[in-house]
Amino acid sequence: MKIVFLGGGNMAAALIGGMLERGFDAHELSVVELAPERREWLVGQFGVGVTGVADDVVREADAVVLAVKPQQMREAVEPLAGRLERALVVSVAAGLRIGDLSRWLDGFDRIVRAMPNTPALVGAGVSGLCAGPGVDGEDRELAGRMLASVGSVVWVEDEARMDAVTAVSGSGPAYVFHFIEALEAAAVARGFDADTARRLAIDTVLGAAKLAAESDDGPDVLRQKVTSRGGTTAAALAVFEQGGFMGLVDRAVAAAEARGRALGEELGRG
Ligand SMILES: NC(=O)C1=CN([C@@H]2O[C@H](COP(=O)(O)OP(=O)(O)OC[C@H]3O[C@@H](n4cnc5c(N)ncnc54)[C@H](OP(=O)(O)O)[C@@H]3O)[C@@H](O)[C@H]2O)C=CC1
Ligand SMILES: O=C(O)[C@@H]1CCC=N1
């Protein structure tokens, strides 16, 4: 198996790190990355092959993972048109639509649009996947296997919903990290040293997510089980409610979704 990453930034590193821990060998993975210092880092960190030019490495690939920023994509992929002899293309870019990628690749249509997230690095990612018109059963199997090696996988039939996947789970880890930052800051404000504050905040989120994942109860029931009548949690949740927490999260997800759609429209016009 030869899997080539085009772009070796944050998301590529999360996928590569996770895939190496779970069933792929370093000699199966390589990265086309423009920045020499980033190439050096990727070799040191993962022992994968690196190059600054896509040419031959792409011709021999079974899969090419497009992992540059959406704004860099057209320039990065147009030189690949006509060179993808046997590769499946998996794009992880936010917003960019399969039809536009296909046009930039001169009609090549074995394209899976995927939206992973950075917890892939620790095997705890979740990815939404959507297959383009030229994708067959074997291609689906390969894309599914790559992303299932770093977490769970959800296939989405209607591509228009990929912007919602991006807004919920692609960007979602950042929302959770922001919540951890807020909980940690609240602990520091109450006199805990930085390490203790971080431990309290991270282990709370980790434990709650693990319980939610493993319990037969939904998160609503688990919340109620923490919330004693007239107790401390009820006092805190009332403040969340006064602040419009549920609506705030929905508006944040809507903003991310709209940004994904706008990126697809803006960049796809070119
Ligand atoms: N970060 C995340 O959590 C997630 C990101 N994504 C998607 O993943 C993609 C990458 O995001 P992210 O990793 O955060 O971005 P990064 O900017 O960290 O990574 C992109 C890398 O590609 C390099 N690059 C740019 N042009 C080329 C080229 N023509 N050939 C080879 N390498 C090139 C960039 O170099 P330079 O910096 O010098 O331009 C950079 O190192 C995006 O499309 C994003 O939407 C999807 C899910 C989650
Ligand atoms: O912020 C972004 O645009 C990318 C896509 C999802 C997560 N990071």
TrEMBL record:
<keyword id="KW-0560">Oxidoreductase</keyword>
<protein>
    <recommendedName>
        <fullName>Pyrroline-5-carboxylate reductase</fullName>
        <ecNumber>1.5.1.2</ecNumber>
    </recommendedName>
</protein>
<keyword id="KW-0521">NADP</keyword>
<keyword id="KW-0963">Cytoplasm</keyword>
<comment type="similarity">
    <text>Belongs to the pyrroline-5-carboxylate reductase family.</text>
</comment>
<dbReference type="GO" id="GO:0055129">
    <property type="term" value="P:L-proline biosynthetic process"/>
</dbReference>
<dbReference type="InterPro" id="IPR029036">
    <property type="entry name" value="P5CR_dimer"/>
</dbReference>
<dbReference type="InterPro" id="IPR053790">
    <property type="entry name" value="P5CR-like_CS"/>
</dbReference>
<dbReference type="Pfam" id="PF03807">
    <property type="entry name" value="F420_oxidored"/>
</dbReference>
<dbReference type="GO" id="GO:0004735">
    <property type="term" value="F:pyrroline-5-carboxylate reductase activity"/>
</dbReference>
<comment type="function">
    <text>Catalyzes the reduction of 1-pyrroline-5-carboxylate (PCA) to L-proline.</text>
</comment>
<feature type="domain" description="Pyrroline-5-carboxylate reductase dimerisation">
    <location>
        <begin position="159"/>
        <end position="262"/>
    </location>
</feature>
<feature type="binding site">
    <location>
        <begin position="67"/>
        <end position="70"/>
    </location>
    <ligand>
        <name>NADP(+)</name>
    </ligand>
</feature>
<dbReference type="InterPro" id="IPR000304">
    <property type="entry name" value="Pyrroline-COOH_reductase"/>
</dbReference>
<dbReference type="InterPro" id="IPR036291">
    <property type="entry name" value="NAD(P)-bd_dom_sf"/>
</dbReference>
<comment type="pathway">
    <text>Amino-acid biosynthesis; L-proline biosynthesis; L-proline from L-glutamate 5-semialdehyde: step 1/1.</text>
</comment>
<keyword id="KW-0028">Amino-acid biosynthesis</keyword>
<dbReference type="GO" id="GO:0005737">
    <property type="term" value="C:cytoplasm"/>
</dbReference>
<keyword id="KW-0641">Proline biosynthesis</keyword>
<dbReference type="InterPro" id="IPR028939">
    <property type="entry name" value="P5C_Rdtase_cat_N"/>
</dbReference>
<dbReference type="Pfam" id="PF14748">
    <property type="entry name" value="P5CR_dimer"/>
</dbReference>
<dbReference type="InterPro" id="IPR008927">
    <property type="entry name" value="6-PGluconate_DH-like_C_sf"/>
</dbReference>
<feature type="binding site">
    <location>
        <begin position="6"/>
        <end position="11"/>
    </location>
    <ligand>
        <name>NADP(+)</name>
    </ligand>
</feature>
<feature type="domain" description="Pyrroline-5-carboxylate reductase catalytic N-terminal">
    <location>
        <begin position="2"/>
        <end position="95"/>
    </location>
</feature>
